DUF523 domain-containing protein
Amino acid sequence: MKPLTKKILISACLLGEPVRYDGKSISFTDRKIRYFQQQGYLVPVCPEVIGGLPIPREPAEIIKSVGGFSDQKVITKGGCDVTDAFQRGAKITLEIALQNNVMAALLKSNSPSCGNLQIYDGSFSNQLIDGSGITVTALKKAGIPVFNEMQVDLLCDFIERQD
Protein backbone atom coordinates (compact mmCIF):
# COMPACT_ATOMS: atom_id res chain seq x y z
CA MET A 1 0.00 0.00 0.00
CA LYS A 2 1.38 3.42 -0.90
CA PRO A 3 1.98 6.13 1.75
CA LEU A 4 -1.04 8.29 2.57
CA THR A 5 -1.05 12.07 2.45
CA LYS A 6 -4.12 12.34 4.69
CA LYS A 7 -5.28 10.57 7.84
CA ILE A 8 -8.20 8.35 8.83
CA LEU A 9 -10.44 9.10 11.80
CA ILE A 10 -11.21 5.92 13.74
CA SER A 11 -13.39 4.96 16.69
CA ALA A 12 -11.03 4.47 19.63
CA CYS A 13 -12.94 1.36 20.72
CA LEU A 14 -11.94 -0.32 17.45
CA LEU A 15 -8.30 0.10 18.45
CA GLY A 16 -8.88 -1.66 21.76
CA GLU A 17 -9.45 1.37 23.96
CA PRO A 18 -12.09 0.61 26.65
CA VAL A 19 -14.28 3.64 25.92
CA ARG A 20 -17.59 2.00 25.02
CA TYR A 21 -20.68 2.65 27.11
CA ASP A 22 -20.03 -0.62 28.96
CA GLY A 23 -16.37 0.22 29.61
CA LYS A 24 -15.18 -2.34 27.07
CA SER A 25 -13.46 -2.20 23.73
CA ILE A 26 -14.24 -4.06 20.53
CA SER A 27 -12.35 -7.19 19.54
CA PHE A 28 -11.51 -5.96 16.06
CA THR A 29 -8.36 -6.87 14.19
CA ASP A 30 -7.68 -6.12 10.58
CA ARG A 31 -4.22 -6.20 9.04
CA LYS A 32 -4.90 -3.13 6.90
CA ILE A 33 -6.04 -1.09 9.90
CA ARG A 34 -3.01 -2.29 11.92
CA TYR A 35 -0.79 -1.16 9.04
CA PHE A 36 -2.41 2.27 9.04
CA GLN A 37 -1.96 2.43 12.82
CA GLN A 38 1.73 1.46 12.62
CA GLN A 39 2.28 4.13 9.96
CA GLY A 40 0.66 6.83 12.13
CA TYR A 41 -2.27 7.39 9.76
CA LEU A 42 -5.05 6.90 12.34
CA VAL A 43 -6.66 9.56 14.51
CA PRO A 44 -8.55 7.77 17.33
CA VAL A 45 -11.63 9.41 18.84
CA CYS A 46 -14.60 8.56 21.02
CA PRO A 47 -17.18 11.29 20.41
CA GLU A 48 -19.20 10.31 23.48
CA VAL A 49 -16.23 10.62 25.82
CA ILE A 50 -15.05 13.78 24.04
CA GLY A 51 -18.55 15.16 24.59
CA GLY A 52 -18.20 14.65 28.34
CA LEU A 53 -19.88 11.31 29.00
CA PRO A 54 -18.25 8.96 31.54
CA ILE A 55 -16.94 5.41 31.14
CA PRO A 56 -18.92 3.30 31.74
CA ARG A 57 -22.19 5.05 30.99
CA GLU A 58 -25.79 4.08 30.59
CA PRO A 59 -26.74 2.86 27.08
CA ALA A 60 -28.25 5.58 24.93
CA GLU A 61 -30.23 5.58 21.69
CA ILE A 62 -31.49 8.21 19.29
CA ILE A 63 -35.18 8.92 19.71
CA LYS A 64 -36.97 10.08 16.60
CA SER A 65 -39.44 12.82 17.34
CA VAL A 66 -42.53 13.59 15.29
CA GLY A 67 -40.41 15.91 13.16
CA GLY A 68 -38.00 13.13 12.19
CA PHE A 69 -34.23 12.99 12.45
CA SER A 70 -33.82 16.77 12.27
CA ASP A 71 -35.30 16.90 15.77
CA GLN A 72 -33.44 13.87 17.11
CA LYS A 73 -32.71 13.45 20.80
CA VAL A 74 -30.40 10.99 22.48
CA ILE A 75 -31.89 9.43 25.58
CA THR A 76 -30.35 6.92 28.00
CA LYS A 77 -32.12 3.72 28.90
CA GLY A 78 -33.03 5.37 32.21
CA GLY A 79 -34.61 8.36 30.44
CA CYS A 80 -31.87 11.02 30.76
CA ASP A 81 -31.47 13.38 27.82
CA VAL A 82 -27.80 13.30 26.75
CA THR A 83 -28.32 15.04 23.41
CA ASP A 84 -26.06 17.97 24.33
CA ALA A 85 -23.12 15.68 25.13
CA PHE A 86 -23.58 13.80 21.84
CA GLN A 87 -23.80 17.05 19.86
CA ARG A 88 -20.76 18.50 21.66
CA GLY A 89 -18.81 15.30 20.93
CA ALA A 90 -19.80 15.43 17.27
CA LYS A 91 -18.71 19.07 16.98
CA ILE A 92 -15.34 18.46 18.62
CA THR A 93 -14.78 15.28 16.61
CA LEU A 94 -15.41 17.21 13.39
CA GLU A 95 -12.90 19.86 14.53
CA ILE A 96 -10.34 17.12 15.23
CA ALA A 97 -10.96 15.61 11.79
CA LEU A 98 -10.46 18.96 10.07
CA GLN A 99 -7.35 19.80 12.12
CA ASN A 100 -5.81 16.44 11.23
CA ASN A 101 -6.50 16.57 7.50
CA VAL A 102 -8.74 13.50 7.63
CA MET A 103 -9.84 11.97 4.31
CA ALA A 104 -12.33 9.46 5.74
CA ALA A 105 -13.57 7.89 8.95
CA LEU A 106 -13.85 4.29 10.16
CA LEU A 107 -16.40 4.32 12.96
CA LYS A 108 -18.26 1.74 15.06
CA SER A 109 -21.43 0.48 13.43
CA ASN A 110 -24.88 0.94 14.98
CA SER A 111 -23.71 3.48 17.58
CA PRO A 112 -25.84 6.57 18.31
CA SER A 113 -22.67 8.58 17.62
CA CYS A 114 -20.79 6.53 15.06
CA GLY A 115 -23.31 4.35 13.21
CA ASN A 116 -23.07 5.08 9.49
CA LEU A 117 -25.79 2.85 8.05
CA GLN A 118 -28.02 1.79 10.92
CA ILE A 119 -28.71 2.80 14.50
CA TYR A 120 -30.90 1.34 17.22
CA ASP A 121 -34.51 2.51 17.00
CA GLY A 122 -34.75 4.20 20.40
CA SER A 123 -36.82 1.49 22.06
CA PHE A 124 -33.86 -0.29 23.72
CA SER A 125 -35.10 -3.57 22.21
CA ASN A 126 -32.07 -4.25 19.94
CA GLN A 127 -34.05 -3.23 16.84
CA LEU A 128 -31.98 -1.56 14.11
CA ILE A 129 -33.29 1.00 11.65
CA ASP A 130 -31.66 2.81 8.75
CA GLY A 131 -30.01 5.98 9.95
CA SER A 132 -26.83 7.69 11.04
CA GLY A 133 -25.38 8.61 14.40
CA ILE A 134 -24.92 12.20 15.53
CA THR A 135 -21.19 12.32 14.73
CA VAL A 136 -21.61 10.60 11.37
CA THR A 137 -24.19 13.18 10.37
CA ALA A 138 -21.77 16.02 11.20
CA LEU A 139 -18.87 14.38 9.34
CA LYS A 140 -20.96 13.66 6.25
CA LYS A 141 -22.26 17.25 6.17
CA ALA A 142 -18.61 18.35 6.10
CA GLY A 143 -17.92 16.01 3.16
CA ILE A 144 -16.01 13.34 5.10
CA PRO A 145 -17.07 9.83 4.05
CA VAL A 146 -17.73 7.37 6.87
CA PHE A 147 -17.25 3.61 6.84
CA ASN A 148 -17.81 1.03 9.58
CA GLU A 149 -15.68 -1.92 10.74
CA MET A 150 -17.39 -4.24 8.25
CA GLN A 151 -16.47 -1.91 5.36
CA VAL A 152 -12.67 -1.89 5.63
CA ASP A 153 -12.30 -3.05 2.02
CA LEU A 154 -14.57 -0.20 0.85
CA LEU A 155 -12.49 2.24 2.91
CA CYS A 156 -9.29 0.93 1.33
CA ASP A 157 -10.81 1.20 -2.16
CA PHE A 158 -11.80 4.78 -1.36
CA ILE A 159 -8.28 5.57 -0.12
CA GLU A 160 -6.67 4.09 -3.25
CA ARG A 161 -8.82 6.37 -5.41
CA GLN A 162 -7.97 9.47 -3.35
CA ASP A 163 -4.29 9.39 -2.67
About this structure: The first strand starts at residue 7 and ends at 11.
